[in-house]
Write a structure and sequence with these properties.
Strand 3, helix 2 and strand 4 form a beta-alpha-beta unit. The chain is mostly beta strands and 154 residues long. It has a 7-stranded parallel sheet, with no helix packed on it. It is built from 2 helices and 7 strands.
């Protein structure tokens, strides 16, 4: 069958729209849209069941768009570093297959307890945020790699 290995949307202009997901969404496995300023994921409504890797680093997201939780049931790697994330929705628990979560260099002050539901998570990077405490549920995870260095400015 058809497979798309990489859909690179890096450094596109905000007024340019990607092709509709109906044209590529069924087969898409990897999506990189760094430095793109695109907000197409804000209106994501169709499940992208093949997507395993999503990189939305270096954008201006203040929150992870709800569509990511609702439409990406097989996501394994999520890059959201160097955005402006203030909080993580409890809906993070819907990403049950997530193995790697990169949230470094945001402005997070806390993590939801639901992060403990991500039982397949093996790598979590939350360094460079403003976290003062971590949820106890984080201790339930069998992480191979956890980066929590405190931000010196926070």
């Amino acid at each position: 069958g058809k497979r798309l290995g990489l859909r690179n949307l890096t450094e596109k202009r905000a007024n340019q729209s990607p092709p509709p997901p109906t044209k590529w969404g069924t087969y898409l496995q990897r999506l990189t849209a760094t430095n793109s300023y695109w907000r197409f994921v804000d209106s994501m409504s169709a499940p992208l069941t093949s997507l395993r890797f999503l990189d939305l680093a270096n954008n201006y997201f203040e929150a992870i768009p709800e569509g990511i939780f609702d439409c990406l049931p097989n996501l394994r790697v999520l890059h959201f570093e160097a955005n402006l994330l203030k909080q993580i929705s409890p809906k993070i628990q819907q990403l049950l297959k997530l193995r790697m979560l990169y949230l470094q260099e945001n402005v997070l002050q806390s993590l939801p307890p639901q992060i403990g539901c991500l039982t397949r998570l093996s790598c979590l990077d939350i360094s460079g945020n403003r976290l003062s405490t971590l949820p106890a549920q984080l201790g339930l995870l069998k992480l191979d790699q956890l980066k929590v260095l405190r931000d010196e400015k926070g």
